[in-house]
Design a protein that fits this description.
The protein has about 350 residues and is an alpha+beta fold. Helix content is about 35%, strand content about 15%. It is built from 14 helices and eleven strands. It has a five-stranded antiparallel beta sheet. Strand 5 and strand 6 form a beta hairpin.
């Protein structure tokens, strides 16, 4: 009986904090925010951390404006399609003119946690997906490097303090065939895959039988909420890797804190400053992704989150001392309401 319970979705979520609903897991984080807001006497103090991004990148930021700040040699080919642009062959023409080849990744310009992100294989698929999306969209060439990482870093604007504080390696959701079981049956043996079964059933034939030893990639998007396993690889932090990452960060004007989501040929190549491309940069709202490692306790996770809030507070303090403004609380609350309205509409439009 107990053996069966560990494969029930309710108990999988209950016994593994990494699956707790965001409105539960973020309760302590709300208090971290309030404590530092009181210290700063500023509800939205984090907006000063990255003055080049709306809200410092805490919510509602537009990806295309962030891509403009990243050194272009570290970006895959990327195309911004503004809201209101025709989602027809005109869009395909723009993709072709940009010299982009399939597969592509299509994602919302304002997004969060993999919302509405999809790998696209054909022009027809691109049009269909884009028509469902709310607001502007980003089309980006799919990066084929084998290793995907999330790297958290910061630099202080007026002192020499800077560091890489987190490296998370992403293990994509897969099943390995035994020559007899269907994909659906293999999923039932994998607690992480069980939580994604309904979503996977919409685009994968669960009745197919993989060959013995054959590994089948179930989800190509490296988001935790889509089944990707996040692994704590902080032991990869080295002076060489910090030099590479902080060099990129230093070339981004008005950006001092956040997380690079990137792909690389290997950690050795990344450390040497070669063979890597950046998919996204997330600002003040990003988390040190290594905390979602299955071996990481909830207490360790909140300790690390607290430490990162402290870093943001001290960067903001330096910024404000030099005259950088944040946001009036009315402005911040207005932007927050607009963001939640957008998220709700985007989810309803796409049927999530």
């Amino acid at each position: 009986m107990l053996g069966k319970l560990k494969y029930h979705p309710f108990f999988i979520r209950l016994l593994n904090w990494e699956y707790w609903p965001i409105y539960i897991s973020n309760i302590p984080v709300f208090f971290f925010w309030m404590i530092h807001a009181i210290r700063a006497r500023d509800l939205f103090f984090f907006a000063a951390v990255n003055p080049a991004i709306a809200t410092g990148g805490f919510f509602g930021e537009e990806k295309h404006k962030i891509y403009a700040l990243i050194p272009q040699e570290y970006l895959p080919k990327t195309l911004f399609i503004p809201a209101g642009t025709s989602r027809t062959n005109e869009m395909i023409i723009r993709v072709n003119e940009a010299g982009m080849t399939y597969p592509l990744v299509c994602k919302p310009d304002v997004g969060e946690r993999g919302m509405n992100v999809k790998v696209i294989d054909t022009p027809e698929d691109l049009i269909q997906h884009a028509k469902k999306m709310e607001g502007g969209i980003i089309i980006q060439e799919y990066i084929s490097y084998p290793t995907e990482l999330s790297v958290m870093c910061h630099r202080f604007p007026h002192s020499n303090r800077k560091a890489v504080t987190s490296i998370c390696k992403k293990a994509f959701l897969t099943v390995t065939g035994d020559g007899e079981s269907t994909v659906g049956q293999l999923i039932q043996k994998n607690p992480r895959a069980i939580l994604q079964k309904q979503t996977l059933a919409r685009r994968i034939d669960l009745k197919q039988i993989p060959k013995n030893g054959e590994t089948l990639l179930l989800e190509p998007i490296g988001n935790h909420c889509r089944g990707t396993q996040f692994l704590n690889t902080n032991h990869w932090i080295s002076p060489q890797l910090e030099e590479t990452i902080l060099n990129v960060l230093s070339q981004m004007p008005g950006i001092y804190y956040g997380r690079f989501d990137l792909r690389t040929a290997s950690i050795e190549e990344l450390s040497a400053g070669r063979e890597f491309l950046i998919m996204e940069f997330n600002g003040a709202g990003s988390e040190p992704a290594h905390i979602y490692d299955p071996g990481y306790s909830v207490f360790q996770a909140y300790r690390d989150i607290w430490n990162h809030w402290k870093i943001m507070y001290h960067i903001s303090k330096e910024q404000k001392a030099s005259g950088i403004r944040t946001m009036h609380w009315r402005e911040g609350l207005g932007l927050l309401r607009a963001y939640f309205t957008y998220k709700k509409k985007a989810s309803l439009t796409y049927g999530l």
